[in-house]
Amino acid sequence: MVLEGMTGAGKSTLVQAYAANFPRYEAEDGTRIPVFALMTPSPITVKGMASHMLAELGDPAAYRGTLQNMNARLIHYLKVCEVELVILDDFQHLIDSETNKILAKVSDWLKVLIKETGIPFLVIGIEDSVERILRANQQLSRLFAVRETLHPFSLATEDEAKDFHRFLEFAEQAVKMPIQHDLSPDEFLARMYFATEGVVANLMNLLRFAALLAQKEGEATLSLQLLDQAFNKRLQRHLIKPPNPFSTPLKNILVGLQGKTSDSTSTVKKSRTKSASEVLNTK
Ligand SMILES: Nc1ncnc2c1ncn2[C@@H]1O[C@H](COP(=O)(O)OP(=O)(O)OP(=O)(O)O)[C@@H](O)[C@H]1O
Ligand SMILES: [Mg+2]
Questions:
Q1: How far away, in angstroms, is 7 Cα from ligand 1 center?
Q2: Hey, CA dihedral for 156, 157, 158, 159, is it positive or negative?
Q3: Fewer beta carbons within 10 Å, N or C terminal of the chain?
Q4: CA separation (Å) from 149 to 12, 125, 204?
Q5: Position in ligand 1 atom list of the atom nearest CA 90
Q6: Are the C-beta atoms of 253 and 190 separated by less than 8 Å?
Q7: 5 Cβ below 6 A of ligand 1
Q8: pLDDT at res. 250
Q9: Residue ranges of domains in the chain, CATH in brackets
């Protein structure tokens, strides 16, 4: 399976939380690793990838031997450790960042490894990059019949707006600093969406930094002013947006959102016809 999504969508966090449910353990006759999760190294070569996998499995001689020797050990360990799923994060490292070329030898080597072990692989990476890697190697592509995308939150439909709202409530609890709700829930949601584009990393960055500012100033709640400050310091330059999304007049925010939720962005499916402002105004 392939799991792709834009940077900060929460892919690594999601799979790490999943893998944590199946930790490695010591059985009487050796180590068991039900879910083997690892990052793709960068820069990467076939031998580098093989030794990295061996090291992550716990082979004390991970960097020794010929490639053939390493391959044999890798296949052996994956079997005796009874690995049921391999999760390979940052799969886009199979594209050389200097030349922008796909590392065909690594991709071929991976194809052989998957076929020889027969173990399911989940590869995770930035959307479009994974597609590119697979399109360049049809035999590898064939092995990844299931392809899913982790989308950012959206306000395009009422159901999606509810999901975003629910996530915000959890995030507020996670940073252990309640938000001072001076605005209507819909307006607050619209402003939050404008400030974060529905991307989990932006949202958490904003709330975590605002909570830190609140602590420093001895406040017990997150005011809109603190959220503005946190946005200006942490997100404004990254997202290239005007400052103060929590105090700018609402009509400016809605105009910005209308542009965002039209079918011009890749994060919003073309079938979603309602704009964020329409959803918000019908409530
Ligand atoms: N479900 C979640 N709950 C709380 N915080 C989250 C959640 N998912 C992601 N985050 C936070 O968002 C940030 C980015 O998440 P993560 O690294 O998983 O994104 P990613 O999709 O793997 O990004 P990249 O493609 O750049 O590797 C992290 O700070 C993480 O703590
Ligand atoms: Mg990641």
A1: 8
A2: negative
A3: C
A4: 13, 10, 20
A5: 27
A6: yes
A7: yes
A8: 85
A9: 2-149 (3.40.50.300), 158-282 (no CATH)
Q: Is the CB of 212 under 6 A from ligand 1?
A: no
Q: What is the pLDDT of residue 263?
A: 41
Report, as ranges of residue numbers, the positions in the chain whose pLDDT lies below 50. 262-274, 279-280, 282-283
Is residue 10 lining ligand 1, measured as CB closer than 6 Å? yes
DSSP of 69-88: HHHHHHHHHHHHTT--EEEE
Q: Which tens digits make up the pLDDT trace of 1-24?
A: 999 999 999 999 999 999 999 999
Which residues neighbour 181 within 8 Å (Cβ) at sequence distance 6 or greater?
188
- Taking the CB of residue 62, how many other CB atoms lie within 10 A of it? 18
- Kindly report the protein residue whose alpha carbon is nearest to atom 8 of ligand 1: 10
Q: Tell me, what's the pLDDT at 195? A: 96
Reading the block at residue 207, the tokens are 């709330």
pTM of the model: 0.89
Kindly give the distance from the C-alpha atom of residue 153 to the centroid of ligand 1, in angstroms, as a whole number: 13
Q: Which of 10, 18, 2 is nearest to 198 (CA)?
A: 10
Calculate ∠ Cα 183-151-198, nearest 5°: 20
